[in-house]
Amino acid sequence: MTASNRPDAWAAAARLTARWLERSERIDELLDSLGGSISGPERARCQHLVFGVVRHFGWITAGLERFVAHPPRFATRAVLCLAGYELIEALAKEDQAEKDGLVAKIVHHAVEQTKTLASPAEARLVNAVVRKLAGALAVPPPPKLAPAEVLAEYFSHPVWLVRSWLVQFGAEATRALLEWNQQPAPVYARWRGAETERPAWLKPTDWPGYFEVEAGHWGSVEPLLADGKLYLQDPATRLAVELLAPQSGEAVLDACAAPGGKSLLIADTIKQGTVVAFDLPTARIDRLRQNLMHVPETLTAAIVQGDLREHAGGLLKELGLAQEYPAVLLDVPCSNTGVMRHRIDVKWRLQEGDFKKHPRQQLTLLHDAARLVAPGGRLVYSTCSLDAEENEHVVREFLASKAGAPFKLDGSIISYPWVTGHDGAGAFLLRKQ
Questions:
Q1: Is residue 81 flagged as an active site residue?
Q2: CA-to-CA distance for 279 and 274, rounded, in angstroms?
Q3: Catalytic pick among 46, 256, 334, 384
Q4: Closest C-alpha to 54, from 79, 27, 80
Q5: Percent of the chain with pLDDT over 70
Q6: Which of 16, 45, 224, 359 fits as disulfide partner to 230, beta carbons 3.0 to 4.6 Å?
Q7: Are strands 251-254 and 273-279 parallel, antiparallel or unpaired?
Q8: Could you give all domains of the chain from N- to C-terminal order, each with its CATH number?
Q9: pLDDT tens, 28-45?
């Protein structure tokens, strides 16, 4: 595709947004569908716009509903949402003259895009609505003790989730979490190469070994990822591995391993020994395999495709692998409430009933993983959830069961993003007697 007919970022973002509005597709899959049709700064701009719409969707929609009696076609609705996000960005500027100038440009650009993406008739609707929308969005944040409904609308979260957090964390912490989730997430990476080779553009963080990848360096990042010298990873992922404390020479089982970030971190930590990465035979296995290609040469890595809940010990035996391990990591599927700043569409996919469904599955997986722990061994149960239903409640129920009788809780950590400054997570160390 030549530069002259390559789609621009805004038009590409409008098409992806229309698909999201119509089909509720996952954002990561939507972006993957772009393929090579758009790249470099244009792709980054497209992602920025789509992420902005999804992140602020509740607030934008609340504004639009005041001026649009009947929702227009998805293509036009996408234009209105993108213009709404651009208005939010513009209204954050401090200089009033700059704000006014940006608002005028946003209105004009949205109208012109609608003529191409929808129709001239719909462009007239967009012109009228976007002008009014600027005023609707230009309101101060709600007061500290605002009710859940007000907080949910302004910070674009489901109201049932805000109510739950207010009960769990209180007003101040909930407000901090909502504000956190609404900020674009920095890109963090773990440096795996020689210290003398580390690029100067990797910005040090408060967490040793982890660096912030600032904008403008993606062309340099890609070859480092391919060589295995750099791995994109939030610092929160280190917590479960540090609690497990795998030792050099040990055999370690990562029981829900894909896509492999924690397996690779375990391998880099022990350098010698064995890492067995176990997970379901899904598309994520390909990423797990790619990641484990970069483990230290002094270490053995094995990938096992299977269901932990269906005779995992027998499958390990068939493959000539140990059936019990001194160290087991179980990073379970969860609600992802600790990583909403990265997984921006999670809040719109979550259902209130998930906090009953997930813990049932998590407890089952914990029982199955416990069978693979050697006497005297360690099992770390971890999530990327902030919610007690998926953390403390699951662990407490496990310890009260027959399968949990040989174990004792030997340590735990919960990362609350507004406190730690990185993603949220829960990790619990269970030691077998």
A1: no
A2: 16
A3: 384
A4: 27
A5: 98
A6: 224
A7: parallel
A8: 9-137 (1.10.940.10), 148-181 (no CATH), 187-232 (no CATH), 235-432 (3.40.50.150)
A9: 999 999 988 888 889 989
